[in-house]
Amino acid sequence: MKINKVLCAALAVIMLSGSMSASGQQVPSSTGQTQVTAAQESDSIKTYTITESEGGTIIENPTHRMFWEYPVVPAGQSRTGKIYIKNDTDYELDLSPSSVILPFDNQQALKYLSYLHLTLINSKGQTVFDGRYTEITENGGIDFPSPAPGKTEGLIITVRCRFDYTGKPEDETAPVRWEVSAKKKQVERQKTPGFVVPAVIIVVLAAVLFVLGILRIYSDKRAGETGGSHSGLQK
After folding, report:
1. What residues contact residue 158 under an 8 Å CB cut-off, 6+ apart?
2. Sign of the Cα pseudo-torsion (88, 94, 95, 97, in order)
3. Do the bridges between strand 116-122 and strand 78-87 make them parallel or antiparallel, or are there none, so unpaired?
4. pLDDT tens per residue, range 112-165
5. Which listed residue, of 67, 128, 206, 217, carries a Cα 20 to 30 Å from 169's Cα?
6. Percent of the chain, pLDDT > 70?
7. Rounded to the nearest 10 degrees, how much is the dihedral formed by the CA atoms of 124, 70, 104, 96?
8. Handedness of CA 99, 104, 105, 109 (dihedral sign)
9. Strand order of the sheet with strand 57-61?
10. pTM flag (> 0.85)
């Protein structure tokens, strides 16, 4: 009888765990890091591929929103994902036109986003951003990586919700638009200042005149010595 009760309890735990994974619910851990279920793995990695097709195209894969584009992180929990930028062109790229657009028309969502702490670290281990989600548009926004032709660079993104948040994220959040834009980087040629050439010419002419002057003095001196010698012979 006791064995049957134990088996029933174990079966109930297994069924509950399976139902939570299937529904895509977040499973909090004792460390505060939200354990991502299999259903959520598809919203934690996004790749932006910049191509030259059709005059220049940016391909998002996958196309649906990532967890940082529609955050629903509960209080005291966090999630981590990755953003990849792939340069599938033959030239250097400038990603400065890229931007993050907050839902400024939704005060409730902005309040929730103010409880979220966002960290971005590039492939070199450098912190690109570390602050409140609502501060991401300040100081020129994010410095997205600009990979060399044929290369891929990434960002590790972590979103953490403060412990003192008491609301329900699913009721207060709103979409945040992450727009990755690229343009061909203009490489400026190093121009030689216009005054350099005349200066060189002046220096060369001065040197030539100096040498000619020395030769003239030497020639005059030689001529004087020769004239003096002739005078002595005539006497």
Report:
1. 78, 79, 80, 81, 118, 119
2. negative
3. unpaired
4. 999 999 999 999 999 999 999 999 998 778 889 999 999 999 999 999 999 999
5. 128
6. 67
7. 30
8. positive
9. 57-61, 45-51, 78-87, 152-161, 116-122, 127-132
10. no
